[in-house]
User: Which sequence fits this backbone?
């Protein structure tokens, strides 16, 4: 790849978490940035997730705060609660529209889009970006049963990046011990930017995981 290409990352937070959980590793978001900074000029790194509005404390909040301080553009919106036909309470938070709009608006300023998602709904977005002259890579995996990426999305992409092969470069070292977020009085402190690995442990309860579609 040319060192002069302008790259933007678009991370579907819930989808990426579900994929890495299935593969059995955690993303080190600091290493993820470095990996793609080494492939060209990293213009933007977007991270999309929905948040449960009425929770006093969300398990994903420390991760969101750290990403916001350390080179990522975090996009959030409140989840919506509804009752399905069986009377079960469901929480849904789909960020597809926000991601698509940001990608299309940024298309004149980038050469390469890297989409971290296996959601087949993004196939039309990938095609639209390609019509604008942007090369699109999709990062997910086909090594699981079933695969975490929709076949139509993988076929539409210019390049498919299997996360199982990127694990050694963007994964958290299993020997890393996460630091506590907070002080002895139980008050939350600002996440420390020096540790790029600890925050990935907080992606464990993203509210839209149950609503993933591929």
Assistant:
């Amino acid at each position: 790849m040319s060192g002069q290409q302008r790259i933007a990352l678009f991370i579907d937070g819930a989808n990426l978490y579900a994929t890495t959980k299935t593969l059995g590793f955690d993303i080190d978001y600091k290493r993820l940035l470095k990996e793609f900074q080494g492939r060209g000029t990293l213009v933007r790194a977007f991270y999309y997730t929905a948040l449960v509005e009425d929770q006093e404390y969300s398990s994903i909040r420390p991760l969101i705060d750290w990403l916001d301080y350390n080179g990522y553009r975090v996009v959030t919106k409140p989840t919506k609660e509804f009752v399905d036909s069986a009377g079960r309470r469901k929480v849904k938070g789909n960020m597809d529209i926000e991601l698509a709009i940001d990608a299309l608006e940024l298309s004149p300023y980038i050469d390469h889009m890297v989409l971290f998602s296996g959601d087949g709904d993004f196939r039309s977005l990938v095609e639209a970006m390609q019509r604008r002259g942007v090369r699109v890579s999709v990062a997910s995996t086909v090594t699981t049963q079933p695969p975490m990426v929709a076949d139509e999305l993988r076929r539409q992409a210019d390049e498919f990046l299997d996360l199982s092969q990127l694990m050694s470069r963007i994964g958290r070292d299993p020997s890393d011990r996460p630091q506590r977020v907070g002080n002895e009085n139980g008050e939350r402190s600002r996440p420390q930017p020096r540790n790029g690995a600890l925050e990935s442990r907080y992606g464990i309860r993203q509210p839209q995981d149950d609503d993933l579609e591929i």
